[in-house]
From TrEMBL:
Pathway: Amino-acid biosynthesis; L-tryptophan biosynthesis; L-tryptophan from chorismate: step 3/5. This is N-(5'-phosphoribosyl)anthranilate isomerase. GO terms for biological process: L-tryptophan biosynthetic process. Pfam families: PRAI. PANTHER family: N-(5'-PHOSPHORIBOSYL)ANTHRANILATE ISOMERASE. Its EC number is 5.3.1.24.
Length: 220
C-alpha cells in the first residue's frame, strides 16, 4: 500500500515521513479552509531537500490551468493534487502545459453521485483521490477534515475506474486496516490522523505505518 503523508510543513517533517516509510509527500498551498497551508516558497524549499526517489504533490485549490501552472512553476513538485472540481477544458489545458507532471484529481465523496464524478475525472487524471470535503459549502472544505465518508461508495469507485485510486478522509492508525479491507485502494493519504498540536507526530505516524505494514500490503 503506497502511503502519502499530507500537510507536511517543514523539511524536518518531510524527513520524518520519509524515514517512517512514506512514498509521497503532500504540500498544501492556499486553501479556503483546512490545515497544513504553507507558502509556495516553503514548498519549494522542502522539495529541494526531498530525494528524487520520493514523490511530492502540490495541493492546489485553484480552478484554472493558468493559476495551477503558475503555482507549480514556483515549487516544482512531481505531481499536482487538484482539490476542487476542474472544468474539462481547463484540465485539457493543464495537461497540455504540463505533459510530464502527474495530475491527481480529488473527488469528495458526498453520496452515490460521486461515482459518476470519479468515472468522468478518471478519463483525464492520472490518479483519483477520494476525500471527505464539502466543496459545495459556503466556505469550502477541500481536505484535512479528519472525517471519514461512506467507504461503500469508495469501494464502488475503486472497482469501476481504470486509474489508481487513493483513499483519504479521517484515516488513522485505528481505522486504516478496516478502510483497506472495505475499499481496497491503491494507496492511502493521511493528514490529521498522524498530527498532534499542529505538528507531525512520530508516534501517530509510526502507529499508522505499523497498521498498514501489518496487513502485509505495504509499499514504501
Amino acid at each position: 500500500m503506497l502511503v502519502k503523508v499530507c500537510c507536511i510543513q517543514s523539511v524536518a517533517e518531510a524527513q520524518m515521513a520519509v524515514e517512517e516509510g512514506a512514498g509521497i509527500l503532500g504540500l498544501v498551498s492556499e486553501m479556503p479552509s483546512g490545515p497544513g497551508v504553507i507558502s509556495l516558497e516553503s514548498i519549494a524549499a522542502i522539495v529541494r531537500e526531498v530525494p528524487s526517489t520520493f514523490e511530492t504533490w502540490l495541493l492546489s485549490s485553484a480552478t484554472s490551468a493558468e493559476a495551477i501552472v503558475q503555482q507549480h512553476a514556483a515549487c516544482g513538485t512531481s505531481g499536482i493534487q487538484i482539490c476542487d472540481a476542474l472544468d474539462e477544458k481547463e484540465f485539457a489545458s493543464l495537461r497540455l502545459k504540463l505533459p510530464t507532471t502527474k495530475l491527481i484529481q480529488v473527488v469528495h465523496v458526498t453520496g452515490a453521485g460521486s461515482v459518476a464524478e470519479a468515472v468522468k475525472a478518471s478519463e483525464y487524471a492520472d490518479v483519483i483521490l477520494l476525500d471527505s470535503g464539502q466543496p459545495g459549502a459556503e466556505v469550502k472544505t477541500l481536505g484535512g477534515t479528519g472525517n471519514t465518508h461512506d467507504w461503500s461508495v469508495s469501494k464502488e469507485i475503486c472497482e469501476t475506474i481504470d486509474v489508481p485510486m487513493f483513499l483519504a478522509g479521517g484515516l488513522n492508525g485505528g481505522n486504516v486496516r478496516s478502510a483497506m479491507d472495505a475499499v481496497g485502494p491503491f494507496g492511502l493519504d493521511v493528514c490529521s490522523g498522524v498530527r498532534e498540536d499542529d505538528a507531525l507526530s512520530v508516534v501517530r505516524l509510526r502507529a499508522f505505518m505499523d497498521a498498514v505494514k501489518g496487513r502485509g500490503l505495504f509499499r514504501g
